[in-house]
């Protein structure tokens, strides 16, 4: 059976372009994926990275929601320890007020950046160990305000903004299960913990007002093209970007290359390829087999797809082909 598909967008800045270009690329892709039948379009919070334009995540969400009509717009995610819960409740309450029924709030506890930038963001606040307490505060701010309540999120209180927990290990999986929240696993860069996290989430799940049964979404990378060779060519931009991150020299999204072997050492290749192992890649026939196998192995409820392709027409085409493959399952 087809599985609901969504989009994870880091708003990559292609080499030689600007954040403005990246944000308008994202809007064009959101409109394309809305027409193609994708369910959600999430953007991620990262800081101090010249190749990612979505640092002000809620602002980017407003831009995307204003330029689309029906697709759900969300955060994949907001790194809650970087913010005061009241700020996030007000920001997402505002988004929900402007675009009712279309806003998702995905939450993570990692900083989404390097240690020095995290220190600048958090200003001596916790390094994420009090995430459960911050989450509880945020949930109370979204609850209907009570008589005499002194602290209110306006807008925010009483609005039904769906909360999701994001994670790359079992910590958030267990917490999401215990709270009865949907869980999104970052398989696009942490494939090794996938099965343990899904099992932990399902084993600990308790029904809640938001969710009666477990709902797990899996992040993957996908590169679908007319040929296998072309798909691997497009994927080389993402591989180069991750290689530069490993080397401590992150930058803009590089153009694709024909031969990655000339760019990395064997140990670097192993690191990059193992980290990006959660990837569907090839022509439509190959990706159809990979997608069916992934569903059989994980039984997730939804996939959220990252495709860091340098050429924007090829990027949109990859999402079209993936949706076509999915509908034919």
TrEMBL record:
Where is the Luciferase-like domain positioned along the sequence? 17-296
Coiled-coil ranges per UniProt: none
InterPro entries the UniProt entry points to: Bact_Lucif_Oxidored, CmoO-like, Luciferase-like_dom, Luciferase-like_sf
Q: Which organism is it from?
A: Halopseudomonas salegens
The organism's lineage is: Bacteria, Pseudomonadati, Pseudomonadota, Gammaproteobacteria, Pseudomonadales
GO MF terms listed in the record are: oxidoreductase activity, acting on paired donors, with incorporation or reduction of molecular oxygen
The family line of this record is: To bacterial alkanal monooxygenase alpha and beta chains.
Question: Taxonomically, which superkingdom?
Answer: Bacteria
Q: CDD domains from the xrefs?
A: Flavin_utilizing_monoxygenases
One term under GO cellular component: cytosol
Q: What is this protein called?
A: Luciferase-like monooxygenase
- Membrane-traversing stretches: none
């Amino acid at each position: 059976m087809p599985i609901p598909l969504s989009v994870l967008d880091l708003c990559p800045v292609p080499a030689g372009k600007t954040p403005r270009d990246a944000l308008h690329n994202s809007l064009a892709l959101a409109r394309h994926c809305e027409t193609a039948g994708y369910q959600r379009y999430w953007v991620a919070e990262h800081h101090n990275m010249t190749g990612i334009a979505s640092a002000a995540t809620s602002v980017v969400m407003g831009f995307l929601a204003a330029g689309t009509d029906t697709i759900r717009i969300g955060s994949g995610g907001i790194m809650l320890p970087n913010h005061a819960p009241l700020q996030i409740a007000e920001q997402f309450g505002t988004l929900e007020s402007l675009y009712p029924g279309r806003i998702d709030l995905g939450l993570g506890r990692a900083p989404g950046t390097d240690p020095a930038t995290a220190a600048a963001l958090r200003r001596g606040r916790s390094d994420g160990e009090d995430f459960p307490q911050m989450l509880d505060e945020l949930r109370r701010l979204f609850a209907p305000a009570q008589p005499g309540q002194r602290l209110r999120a306006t807008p925010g209180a009483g609005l039904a903004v769906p909360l999701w927990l994001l994670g790359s290990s079992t910590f958030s999986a267990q917490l999401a299960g215990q709270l009865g929240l949907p869980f999104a696993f970052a398989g696009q860069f942490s494939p090794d913990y996938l099965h343990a996290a899904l099992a932990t989430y399902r084993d600990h799940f308790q029904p809640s007002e938001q969710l009666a049964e477990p709902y797990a979404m899996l992040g993957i990378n996908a590169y679908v093209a007319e040929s296998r060779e072309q798909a691997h060519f497009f994927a080389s931009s993402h591989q180069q970007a991750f290689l530069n991150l490993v080397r401590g020299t992150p930058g803009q999204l590089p153009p694709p290359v024909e031969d990655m072997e000339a760019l990395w050492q064997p140990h670097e290749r192993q690191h990059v390829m193992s980290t990006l192992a959660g990837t569907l890649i090839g022509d439509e026939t190959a990706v159809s087999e990979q997608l069916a196998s992934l569903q059989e192995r994980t039984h997730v409820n939804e996939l959220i797809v990252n495709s860091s392709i340098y050429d924007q027409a090829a990027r949109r085409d990859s999402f079209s082909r993936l949706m076509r493959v999915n509908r034919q399952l």
